[in-house]
């Protein structure tokens, strides 16, 4: 049997007009801002009209620590949403927008997979509705205003050694990580060191995804700290009068994007902050709007539960006042075997002992989810090479911690492959009320918040901070930022900061390398280990295989 690629499956789909998809959740055609026939934005006027409506149930899909074997978190999110609709529930999904960097780098497309996809797949993975371009432009406008201000006299007194605002590009380009700008003579300004981050690491991206409306967006943009004077007084974007023009560039980007699954169910795809640098969740505006439109809203958080779910709970839910009803942890036998020590080339061979050992990673995530008071289920994303004995081992591990595991075949069967999981999720929402609580209180010091996450979630023995980091903690507390949540920048591949330590390591030390204040997004980024805010392309990038065929169709986008 020939297995179709994701793009072949997507291309063969019969999409409905987006106006028809919108009707399923009560959005009239005149509330849409169409981008062609199959995608649209939802107007602010309609979003405002929803605010007094009843909220549906919020379902978070998270995962075990990722491996090169793959877990399929987004695919499971789509499959579960389709499954809920198949059993007669009014459900929709909320996802992040893919970044061009990973799309042309390692991952290829990121809109689900197999028969659990969101379409139009090519559009979503490429320019979509232009949101990322708008964020890139707004961010770089602020960068240009900083250097222009310095050029014309620097009345705010920027210390050019302490400019905190870099430039961004939505592409993996290691050559731009560290640069010198303004070279070429007097007319080009004052040379200084600078650099680029990838757009999804921009504070503007985080702000867009946490803003409640245009007014809140403008307020947050004005609060961005872009640099410091020689006496270390912070300078904000509003002092450059930047927030108004930045908001103008972002006014359409803030509206959620409506698309559909292969089974023609509604999906909001909106925003896309990096999960191991920023908070890794789709926009608050999309999620809160979806909860007014559907009875069940399935959303995801990036990477494993130690990063994505923790930030979803401690940053997004805390700031937006959201109460998740259920968390679903996605696992695959293949990935668990890698956590159990099996090399990628040997994953096709049955190895129950390795699955058993790798399940320590799954159990750790389940234990961590319990600390947030949210009922949990396990979705086993099935591969054809999985054996009954291996699947039973995963189910046994889940049940040892009071969670039920369900074998899901959504990749090959769409929503029909998640019906059992969907029924169980509904049952959990009806029989096990969520006692959701963040991991730490706002009143805890920033250092203690970091240590709490490190010891409670990562199971570290302690954190290690050099004198400059300890001083930064004290300065942030003194500056009035101690009540902010912390956003951990850590490798996604391990509970430790060493990506090679798979499974469930304990007793390690988490080295805190740097603190970065995101005053507009209203969190403090805590950089640990070796984390890059501008990724590079691999030796053989996905871009090598992406091209147009003789019919003008895109090939190689997975």
List the helices and strands and how they pair.
Layout: H1 6-11, H2 18-23, E1 32-34, E2 40-42, H3 44-49, E3 57-63, H4 73-86, E4 91-95, H5 100-104, E5 112-113, E6 116-119, H6 121-125, H7 131-151, E7 167-169, E8 179-181, E9 192-194, E10 196-198, H8 203-210, H9 214-223, E11 225-228, E12 234-236, H10 243-250, E13 257-261, E14 266-269, H11 284-293, E15 296-300, H12 305-320, E16 326-331, H13 333-339, H14 352-370, E17 376-381, H15 388-399, E18 405-408, H16 410-413, H17 419-431, H18 446-456, E19 462-465, H19 467-478, E20 486-489, E21 509-518, E22 523-528, E23 547-548, E24 554-555
Parallel strand pairs: 3-15, 3-16, 4-14, 4-15, 7-10, 16-17, 17-18, 19-21, 20-22
Antiparallel strand pairs: 1-2, 2-13, 5-6, 6-13, 8-9, 11-12, 13-14, 21-22, 23-24
Helix pairs in contact: 4-17, 7-8, 7-10, 9-10, 13-14, 14-15
Structure explained in plain terms:
It is built from 19 helices and 24 strands. With 558 residues, the chain is of the alpha/beta class. It folds into three domains: 294 residues, Rossmann fold; 120 residues, Domain 2, N(10)-formyltetrahydrofolate synthetase (2-Layer Sandwich); 83 residues, Formyltetrahydrofolate synthetase, domain 3 (Roll). α4 crosses α17 and α7 packs across α8. The longest helix has 21 residues. The chain is globular, with a radius of gyration of 23 Å. 54% of the residues are buried.
């Amino acid at each position: 049997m020939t297995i179709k690629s994701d793009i072949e499956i997507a291309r063969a789909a019969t999409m409905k007009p987006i106006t028809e998809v919108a009707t399923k959740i009560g959005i009239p055609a005149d509330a849409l801002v169409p981008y062609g026939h199959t995608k649209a934005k939802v107007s602010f006027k309609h979003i405002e009209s929803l605010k007094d409506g009843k909220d549906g149930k919020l379902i978070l899909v998270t995962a075990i620590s990722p491996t090169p074997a793959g877990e399929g978190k987004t695919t499971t999110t789509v499959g579960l949403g389709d499954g809920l609709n198949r059993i007669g529930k009014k459900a929709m999904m909320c996802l992040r927008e893919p970044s061009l960097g990973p799309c042309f780098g390692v991952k290829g497309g990121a809109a689900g997979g197999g028969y659990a996809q969101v379409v139009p797949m090519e559009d979503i993975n490429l320019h979509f509705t232009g949101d990322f371009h708008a964020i890139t432009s707004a961010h770089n406008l602020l960068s240009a205003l900083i250097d222009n201000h310095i050029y014309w006299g620097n009345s705010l007194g920027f210390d050019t050694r302490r400019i905190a605002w870099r430039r961004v590009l939505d592409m993996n380009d290691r050559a731009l990580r560290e640069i010198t700008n303004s070279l070429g003579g007097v007319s080009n300004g004052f040379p200084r060191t600078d650099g680029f981050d990838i757009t999804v690491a921009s504070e503007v991206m985080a702000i867009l995804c946490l803003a409640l409306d245009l007014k809140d967006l403008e307020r947050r943009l004005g609060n961005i700290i872009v640099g410091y004077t020689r006496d270390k007084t912070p300078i904000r974007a509003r002092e450059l009068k930047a927030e108004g023009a930045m908001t103008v560039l972002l006014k359409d980007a803030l509206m959620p994007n409506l698309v559909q699954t292969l089974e023609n169910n509604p999906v909001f795809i909106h925003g896309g902050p990096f999960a191991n640098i920023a908070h890794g969740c789709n926009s608050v505006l999309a999620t809160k709007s979806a909860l007014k439109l559907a009875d069940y809203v399935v959303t995801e958080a990036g990477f494993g539960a130690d990063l994505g779910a923790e930030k979803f709970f401690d940053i997004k839910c805390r700031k937006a006042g959201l109460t998740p009803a259920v968390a679903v942890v996605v696992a695959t036998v293949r990935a668990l075997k890698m956590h159990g020590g099996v090399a990628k080339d040997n994953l096709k061979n049955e190895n129950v002992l390795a699955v058993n050992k790798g399940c320590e990673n799954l159990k750790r995530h389940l234990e961590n989810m319990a600390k947030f008071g949210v009922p949990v289920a396990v979705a086993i994303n099935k591969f054809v090479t999985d054996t009954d004995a291996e699947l039973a081992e995963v189910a046994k591990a889940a049940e040892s911690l009071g969670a039920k595991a369900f074998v899901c075949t959504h990749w090959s069967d769409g929503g029909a492959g998640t019906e059992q999981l969907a029924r169980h999720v509904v049952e959990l929402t009806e029989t096990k009320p969520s006692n959701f609580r963040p991991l730490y209180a706002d009143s805890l010091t920033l250092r203690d918040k970091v240590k709490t996450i490190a010891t409670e979630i990562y199971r570290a023995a302690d954190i290690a901070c050099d004198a400059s980091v300890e001083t930064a903690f004290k300065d942030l507390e003194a500056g009035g930022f101690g009540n902010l949540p912390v956003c951990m920048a850590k490798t996604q591949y391990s509970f430790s900061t060493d990506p090679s330590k798979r499974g469930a390591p304990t007793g390690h030390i988490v080295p805190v390398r740097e603190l970065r204040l995101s005053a507009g997004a209203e969190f403090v980024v805590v950089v640990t280990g070796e984390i890059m805010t501008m990724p590079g392309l691999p030796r053989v990038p996905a871009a090598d295989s992406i091209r147009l065929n003789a019919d003008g169709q895109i090939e190689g986008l997975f």
